[in-house]
Amino acid sequence: xxxKILTEHINVPGIETLEVYRKHGGYKSVxxxxxxxxxxxxxxxxxTSGLRGRGGAGFPAGMKWSFLAKPEGVPRYLVCNADESEPxxxxxxxxxxxxxxxxxxxxxTSSYALGANxxxxxxxxxxxxxxxxxxxxxxxxxxxxxxxxxxxxxxxxLDLHVAPGGGAYICGEETALLESLEGxxxxxxxxxxxxxxxxxxQSPTVxxxxxxxxxxxxxxxxxxxxxxxxxxxxxxxxxxxxASGNINNPGVYEIELGVPVEEFIYSxxxxxxxxxGRQLKAVVPGGSSVPILPANLILKTAAGEDRLMTYESLxxxxxxxxxxxxxGAFIVFDEAQCIVRNTWNYSRFYHHESCGQCSPCREGTGxxxxxxxxIEHGHGHQQDIDLLVSVAKQIEGNTICPxxxxxxxxxxxxxxxxxxxxxxxxKHPKEATAPGAVYRGQLDxxxx
Amino acid sequence: MAKVTIDGIEIEVEDGTTxxxxxxxxxxxxxxxxxxxxxxLKGSGGKCRVCLVKVTQGSAKDTRPMPKLVASxxxxxxxxxxxxxxxxxxxxxxxxxxxxxxLINHPLDCPICDQAGECSLQDLSYExxxxxxxxxxxxxxxxxxxxxxxxxxxxxxxxxxxRCVYTxxxxxxxxxxxxxxxxxxxEIGTYIENVVDNDFxxxxxxxxxxxxxxxxxxxxxxxxxxxxxxxxxxDCPTCSGKVTLWTRGEEVLRVTARKDQYxxxxxxxxxxCRFDKKETSDWTIEGPRHxxxxxxxxxxxxxxxxxxxxxxxxxxxxxxxxxxxx
Amino acid sequence: xxxxxxxxxxxxxxxxxxxxxxSHYPEGRHKSALLPILHIAQAEFGGWVSPEVMDKVAEILDxxxxxxxxxxxxxxxxxxxxxxxxVLEVCRTGPxxxxxxDELINTLKRKLNxxxxxxxxxGMFTLKPVECLASCGTGxxxxxxxxxxxxxxxxxxxxxxxxxxxxxxxxxxxxxQQS
Lengths: 448, 326, 179
Prior knowledge:
Chain A is α/β, with parallel strands linked by helices.
């Protein structure tokens, strides 16, 4: 069992209440930070920790904090991104449901570090039941003097509110989130200006993921240096992994960064192996937008080294033979799964979720979905495969926000690694559209 | 001030100028096209992506190139910035891609579209598009809708530039139309049946880069290249009264705002001027209007010989007939 | 059309909840409360938001009705047409499909004799496939109002679920509960 920074007490009965949470050391970081540390010192600890944004981009959190503009007389905001919508990702929902005070404590300590006096948790509207849990916990925190005026006699004031979204993946993009929080359509903003300069209500704003913010209390309590000792290289600390798909034990696992992928899939401590005694076919290791890798490349890098659950190792080989850590959504495919169908499914998702603001994404996501739909339903042509690669390339990098890339990568990667399966679908439409039909060429080659 | 180099041409511009504006100062072929950006409208730009350019040097201080292509209409110049537009393969390819994207769901109904001949999408496709068609799926279509008695919305042609929304927001009192839905199902609309009705509503027609918003008083009356644009004015209590008349023979077929070479209006005009004043006697004619934004209209060059015609207020019908034709 | 504009009236509890949300934002930024208010409106008026309801929301926030329409049509949670008593929002995205979401959707279609987007003849159920609901480890799953129903991975589970829902009234939202 590795170190549990976020989930040590998560299964303690009643941990969602303030009383039990405090009994297990909860809110110590608030007291320590507000009474004994300057905001800058908290920022320094987070920088030292090497903590990277846990929402998907993996940008160093302390660095992001230090970019925050601090003009006189202008309020600053901390906004927690709880719009967890990347397919495969359910760690934040799980964490907030079980341990709401963990996030609230992180919000208080982080808001203090950033000099924010009003902070928001923007949660996707579908998670209204979690919003209720958070609001209940926030009310407890207000009653205990942990929120509101003069927190713990420190002179620091903070109001914390939860705001629901309305059903839009794009609001996980930080500027779309801010638009949505302002009661508008979730159209991402043109950047610059970045939120650190002009964010919520045109004021300097930091947007951080739930897991990122929830890691801050431990860092404040134990020191950034201590956090940095966990993990490997620039992948410090622990990470919540959402494991889903065809495995025996789907769920959320807190791992020390550096666990070998093979161990993560097959050990009973984590996924417990592939269900129904089947073989592993492929893994999408970081949420639906990151490249899919076939079994051989997810277990070993192209150089033949064990692939590890770290930012660096998962991306080893670039997009040619590697993938990304993303949000830590580990989606496992068994041998009975059809890559073409899955790629069409993901493509439909991005088509459905494109905000429609910029032309390459608005038009390109729909185009890819329609072509993939045709292939999946037995009406593909051989030239469709190259067409998809080309359309994906036309979207990638040319859009306002990263949704375009997120839509392009899974299509490009699926074709890169499973081209023969696409070709088989097109050449044998009858066989391919039969119920339960799966191309086995690649697997047979592997086993042979 | 900032010195910026675009396609090898150096120019000094005010700080805070965008790359696109700097390029327009240079002028000519190196100016990136723009389908959504519209100078007179605050907040416009960044959406269509046709103006993407490559910044090969960020500034004199930070000489690194920018990793991705940037939208020139919203990216500010830095001192020492080096930009490539027509000289960069990546830019030209990206632009070709985006033109293709803009066209896959476009009906390509130019032969029956009132905008034909003065359509920015037509110009863009002509200059940057490819003739081959790779899209074989069903195209997105919408029904035509009347936004009141003067404006028709043909959503199928729309490229979602948002200009009409910004126009309604910024020059009219109460906006009743907007962008509904999302993704490629997003559309301009009023949601419930509603009339876009205020003194300046007609300006949405002028800002529309395509034939999505057209003037019902002009609909199917003529092709724009058969008409003669004349600058004219009247004493209007609501707007500046400075307009372009589009005439054929003695008939005023259409009234629009005056637009510059980038199709940007010089001054927004009121609906009375636009829709109700269709007699030459309503206007003081100043002279021919040179249109150089649209290839088809300019091709006629009929106005060249009349450049020095004296300005005659309320040009009598007989005089007008004598205007030399090419 | 359900009501005329004069009949759209939020309950006192709903108005109090609306005011609570408005109070979360700085002066002049009250439009920020639009999404929460639309959720409240949908819960108040039969699970969907009619143009009249949206006009009322615009009036409360002192914004133009089009600003409400623009937002309500952008976000998929807001139903713009009348719906059945229970809207079954079934996840159709990749990770749930790996565990049988397609089968769940097909079974519901067959048992309720409806297609996607339709409401059953008895007005009890509307089938609305949705994208990922952050419940990938417990798929296939669906959402009804505020609650998740997970691991519905067999025909028996579907039968159990439907039988339960037929007997079930909606939970009163927290804000509407008498204290």
